[in-house]
Design brief:
Elements: E1 32-35, E2 38-41, H1 42-55, E3 60-61, H2 65-68, H3 75-89, E4 92-93
Parallel strand pairs: 3-4
Antiparallel strand pairs: 1-2
Length: about 110
């Protein structure tokens, strides 16, 4: 079975795109990463992240509950790394302690 490369289209579809698994996206093996739905070596993905962060007009990080709440060992180090990265690239940090919508969806 061949799955065509899928990209989210501009417009209404962007508000509720299909689940990644439904369009053939698989989790990467160790040493690889997903870059816009394509499996690439981790090094290439990190280079692309750095390029986009440094060229962004208004870079913003949205750390979620896994980073905000120091709930297990190693989380505090990740939070400090995020703060350092944001400071180096001049990014804002907007905490997202809860992802649930404020109002029920109709």
């Amino acid at each position: 079975m061949q799955v065509d490369s899928y990209k989210v289209k501009a417009g209404p579809e962007g508000y509720l795109p299909p689940a990644a698994a439904c369009v053939g996206v698989c989790l990467p093996e160790r040493g690889y990463a997903l870059l816009e739905g394509e499996l690439v070596p981790e090094e290439r993905a990190l280079e692309e992240i750095a390029r986009r962060l440094l060229s962004a007009r208004n870079p913003v990080f949205f750390p979620g509950p896994l980073i905000l709440w120091d709930w297990k060992e190693g989380v505090a180090e990740k939070a400090r790394a995020l703060q350092t990265l944001a400071r180096e690239v001049g990014a804002k940090i907007i905490p997202m302690p809860d992802y649930r919508p404020k109002y029920p969806m109709i």
